[in-house]
Amino acid sequence: MKALRKFLDKVKPQFEPGGKFSALQSVFEGFESFLFVPSTTARSGVHIHDAIDSKRTMTVVIIALLPALLFGMYNVGYQHYLAIGALAQTGFWTIFAYGFLAVLPKIVVAYVVGLGIEFIGAQLRHHEIQEGFLVSGMLIPMIVPVDTPLWMIAVATAFAVIFAKEVFGGTGMNIFNVALVTRAFLFFAYPSKMSGDEVFVRTTDTFGIGSGTVVDGFSGATPLGQLATHTGGDLTFTNIVGEPITTLDAFLGFIPGSIGETSTLAILIGAAILLISGIASWRIMLSVFAGGLLTSWICTFADPSTYAAALLSPIEQVCLGGFAFAAVFMATDPVTAARTETGKYIYGFLVGVLAILIRVFNSGYPEGAMLAVLFMNAFAPLIDHCVVEANIRRRMKRAKQINSEEVKL
Amino acid sequence: MIWKNKEVLLGPLSKNNPVIVQILGICSALAVTSKLEPACVMAVSVIAVVALSNVIISLLRNTIPNSIRIIVQLVVVASLVIIVDQLLKAFAYEVSKQLSVFVGLIITNCIVMGRLEAYALSHNPWDSFLDGIGNGIGYGIILVIVAFFRELLGSGTLFGYHVIPQVFYQWGYENNGLMILPPMALITVACIIWVHRSRNKELQEK
């Protein structure tokens, strides 16, 4: 640690104005404050100092994402070996290694492209490098199907970072959640790679691991995909080789789906980390789930022959698809969510309501969570405005009442 | 005199562009730019309508009562648009089907009425004609640039011919479906404005 500090101190002058690498000052600063908490503090005015800054916040979110990410890697391998009929004779570590190698390139691409653009932007404008992309870059690989081509992730990440973030002024200024804009871009630009039966389970080998032929009767449809094509009668979800799956399977995550979203359990562990450390708002999480469960319950009264999703119980609704992931990691994004405490309840509740409504009533979009969060991102400032105005009006009324009572006395 | 005319004709192409500087006519820029062919036809139609209506209003400018000038302008523009629409139906039926209502909606294109109000009512017919041509081309250029990128990236074609080699598709390239959808027209226009403003610093808002 000391040697590292010494090295940084030694090279620091070269990055200061006039030094050899002065153009790269913000890169240096970024790395320095990533490794060591800055020792300088503000000298003017009154400030409250807290041990947590945005780098530490981001790190906690990354830690909270790890259970879902690690399980997602395992599940990628699990689904693959299930598809080639070799699950029983394959060890845990081989399955995990397969998923790890399948997911790792996506993480690398998302980080290299996104951070690359942020670094270039920061250098051009002589800004400090912001750390917001640390989380976005981890979220992006987790919300795409395993077979999304890397170049598509690169294009979508570049689009989202430039048009959803940099043009609004960078970290903390964006209106829409960057990771979800990436996914929306992929979803609308390359629909054949983002939905359907073929993209959620990798059937080919990864770097030479796990080659084999797919068993007979294989179908890569996700439960929500099966729901969208359901044509009346009893509804039983099947896994990719045709065996029925229970709600417990969906809760634990042994179902095909986007990499990080399948396991509600792993996501809830992440939620616990976020809530205990106080990073994410429990109001938003609670109200998203409340809105989702309530709407699911209301939707069970819809006509199941037209809307197959009416056959799902509320618990199944929140366990399937990206609902839980969106509730815990997307809706709670402090930048794009509502900021007033009352507003957070309204915002979260509407995210939950919309996500289920889209899922049930629009079979063209089997998953509504992404669209619901993006839509409510646009409304968050309006919600805040109404909450603040209502508060002002209430207090004005109270002040008037007190004044008039004083006059009477 | 020659220099002044040149400014009237060429100004709207860049520094005073109706689409990217005055932000007019955005709606049709979204609607007709998913392919190059309709965009070009639309551009030519608008050039014709703006130029001719400018000339007609300029000729009539001393006889139009001020209180009903908008009605007169509308009548002139509407007649011209109907002529253009009929010509398209007669000689370019396929394209006119693609453009559908948007030819008729040239009547409501803010650029047409804007030029009549701002220029033709106070200038002689020749200047008004040049102004109309200039603004029409200024609008058309943007339409064609937007349509070029949208058709190239969205369908892999230009004027309906495949220009992206088949090999690319075998390597895993795919057309970007989002480029066909209206939002990307806005973002493409925004990119053009971005490039344009960074090259013309005096246009940047403080």
Quick synopsis:
By secondary structure, chain A is mostly helical. Helix content of chain A is 61%, strand content 0%.
Layout of secondary structure:
The complex is a heterodimer of chains A (409) and B (206).
Chain A: H1 2-15, H2 25-35, H3 54-83, H4 92-125, H5 133-142, H6 150-165, H7 178-189, H8 191-194, H9 223-228, H10 247-252, H11 264-276, H12 282-299, H13 314-319, H14 323-330, H15 341-361, H16 369-408
Helix pairs in contact in A: 3-4, 3-5, 3-11, 4-5, 4-6, 5-7, 6-7, 7-16, 11-14, 12-14, 12-15, 15-16
Chain B: H1 2-10, H2 26-31, H3 36-60, H4 69-91, H5 93-99, H6 101-104, H7 110-118, H8 125-155, E1 157-158, E2 161-162, H9 166-170, H10 182-199
Antiparallel strand pairs in B: 1-2
Helix pairs in contact in B: 1-8, 3-4, 3-5, 3-7, 3-8, 4-5, 4-7, 8-10
Helicity level of chain A: 55-70%
Please report which band the strand proportion of chain A falls in: under 5%, 5-15%, 15-25%, 25-35%, 35-45% or over 45%.
under 5%
Distance between the termini of chain A: 71 Å
| Widest β-sheet, arrangement of strands of chain B | 1-2
Measured by residues with Cβ under 8 Å of the partner chain's Cβ, the largest interface is:
A-B, 12 and 9 residues
The oligomeric state of the chains shown is heterodimer
State the helix count of chain B.
10
The value of Rg of chain A in angstroms is 24 Å
Distance between the termini of chain B: 34 Å
Average of per-residue pLDDT values of chain A: 85
Number of strands of chain B: 2
> What's the overall average pLDDT of chain B, rounded?
86
Largest sheet of chain A: none
Poorly predicted ranges of chain A:
none
Give the total of beta strands of chain A. 0
Radius of gyration of chain B: 18 Å
Question: What is the general shape of chain B?
Answer: globular
Low-confidence sequence ranges of chain B: none
Describe this structure in words.
The complex is a heterodimer of chains A (409) and B (206). The mean pLDDT of chain A is 85. Chain A is built from 16 helices and no strands. Chain A is mainly alpha-helical. In chain A, helix 3 packs parallel to helix 5 and helix 12 packs parallel to helix 15. Chain B has 206 residues and is mostly helical. Chain B has a two-stranded antiparallel sheet with strand order 1-2. The mean pLDDT of chain B is 86. At the A-B interface, helix 6, helix 7 and helix 8 of A face loops of B.
